[in-house]
Amino acid sequence: MAPVMEIMRAAFDPAYGEAWTSGQCAGILASPGTWLMIAELDGRPAGFALTRVIVDEAELLLIAVHPEARRRGIGVRLIAGVAEAARRRGAASLFLEVRSNNPAIALYTGTGFSKVGERINYYRGANGDLFDAHTYSLPLCP
Ligand SMILES: CC(C)(COP(=O)(O)OP(=O)(O)OC[C@H]1O[C@@H](n2cnc3c(N)ncnc32)[C@H](O)[C@@H]1OP(=O)(O)O)[C@@H](O)C(=O)NCCC(=O)NCCS
């Protein structure tokens, strides 16, 4: 878990309080249908994705790439790997929720996700500011 936590600390802006603790990661990984995918760059962990499948729906819970490894296609490859693994586990679609002002949205729309919903004031930032969540979905071909 140490390499994942190193990427977690470096990747998430503390202003939004979105990084998970190692206890939160370990807790969710102990639940059925949840898995962690790690991407390497030059033999070192550079990014990860945490995903859960429940019946025929998969949820991308977290995706992060170390700032020093960004804009080299690791995010795209993680999403492709997650989509393929979710499909193999029986999911028909892959969902995610993202803060409405997160630049990661460009990654999601670029990999085929479409916006399917909004939750107003869903996230509370570290200083108490509220941010909407947008829900995105990607159909997984059988
Ligand atoms: C979002 C994140 C995972 C993207 O990882 P990445 O490896 O840099 O993504 P890729 O290199 O595969 O990007 C593919 C495309 O997505 C888009 N994109 C990715 N990051 C972007 C950004 N910050 N701003 C605008 N577009 C972006 C671009 O179109 C990019 O293609 P290009 O580099 O040819 O322009 C990374 O920025 C990150 O870890 N962010 C912080 C954590 C986070 O907020 N995660 C999402 C919520 S859980």
Chain-wise SSE layout:
Blueprint: H1 2-11, H2 22-29, E1 34-41, E2 44-54, E3 57-65, H3 74-88, E4 93-99, H4 104-110, E5 114-124, E6 130-139
Parallel strand pairs: 3-4
Antiparallel strand pairs: 1-2, 2-3, 4-6, 5-6
The structure holds coenzyme A (COA).
The site of coenzyme A has 20 residues, from strand 3, helix 3 and helix 4.
Short description:
This protein is α+β, with helices and mostly antiparallel strands.
In words, what does this structure look like?
This protein has 142 residues and is an alpha+beta fold. It has a single domain, classed as Gcn5-related N-acetyltransferase (GNAT) (Aminopeptidase, 3-Layer(aba) Sandwich), CATH 3.40.630. The chain has helices at 2-11, 22-29, 74-88, 104-110, and strands at residues 34-41, 44-54, 57-65, 93-99, 114-124, 130-139. Strands 1-2-3-4-6-5 form a six-stranded mixed beta sheet, sandwiched between helices. The longest helix has 15 residues, at 74-88. Bound molecules: coenzyme A. Coenzyme A (COA) is lined by residues 11-12, 62-65, 70-76, 98, 102-104, 106-107, 110.
Q: Descriptors for this entry?
A:
transferase, AcTrfase_RimI/Ard1, binds coenzyme A, Aminopeptidase, [Ribosomal protein bS18]-alanine N-acetyltransferase, alpha+beta, Acyl_CoA_acyltransferase, 28% helix, globular, 142 residues, cytoplasm, six-stranded mixed beta sheet
The first-to-last residue Cα distance is: 32 Å
Bulk shape: globular
The percent range for strand residues is: 35-45%
Q: Architecture in CATH?
A: 3-Layer(aba) Sandwich
Q: What is the C-level CATH assignment?
A: Alpha Beta
CATH superfamily: Gcn5-related N-acetyltransferase (GNAT)
* CATH fold type: Aminopeptidase
The computed structural class is: alpha+beta
Number of domains: 1
Subcellular location: Cytoplasm
EC number: 2.3.1.266
Catalytic activity: N-terminal L-alanyl-[ribosomal protein bS18] + acetyl-CoA = N-terminal N(alpha)-acetyl-L-alanyl-[ribosomal protein bS18] + CoA + H(+)
GO molecular function: protein-N-terminal-alanine acetyltransferase activity
